[in-house]
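Need tokens for this chain, all 254 residues.
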Amino acid sequence: MKSRFALVHNVLPVIAMALVFFLSATAEAKKGRTFSVNEIVQYFDTIVFGAELDQKYAAKMISKWQGPVGFSIQGRVRKEHATFIQTHLQAIAKITRLKFKQVDRKSNEPSISLIFVKGAEMGKIPVPGDAREAMKKAAVNANCYFITWKKPESRIVKAIIVVDVEKDPAILNSCLLEELTQSLGLPNDSNMLRPSIFSDRDHLFEMSPQDKILLHTLYHPAMKPGYTRSQAKKAAYTIISQMAKKKTKKKPAK
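Here are the structure tokens for all 254 residues:
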């Protein structure tokens, strides 16, 4: 299993046109495969609002980090793991404009905790009681997994990414890229548009063009935190259509 399971946990204390463009970096694109704006929008909708495990974990609205994001690295981490993290965060920052900074693991700032443990320890991470069920499900046969916390529902304020340090470094490199990206508000998997970091069939060390489009769309200023599913699809269509038009204009004439 590639990285399992991408779960989102809410800790609020209350009950609480078919424009077409080439993604030339993909194998399918080299064969002439194109993805329409509608396909990318549907992909975005599936990755943000899908419920591959349990409907209770499905997002009800657009949720994302809003401001600087701290990150801490702890446990049985090796130098190569830290290098993977830095490389992926740099790529993510370029697309999202989020600012990442390393913080102490006890920091109260909004942050991502990356915890490296042995396989037998994957389901034993100290988390609040109301997150233990999610953790136990996520840890089953996992190379790595993540859990996020939101307060309010539209704002991600904390995430943990747990990594099985006993797995092959190449697997962990791919796994870290996926979990870091998913912990930003793209929690689900899909085999809809491959290759993709969101597909369990692919092991990538950098985001595919369609992955970058999804991340750009989520963190575009026009995609407002708190948007409902229908609002988010409309906004995604506008954002992705604009990207397709710009790409078409840049395409050299034959």
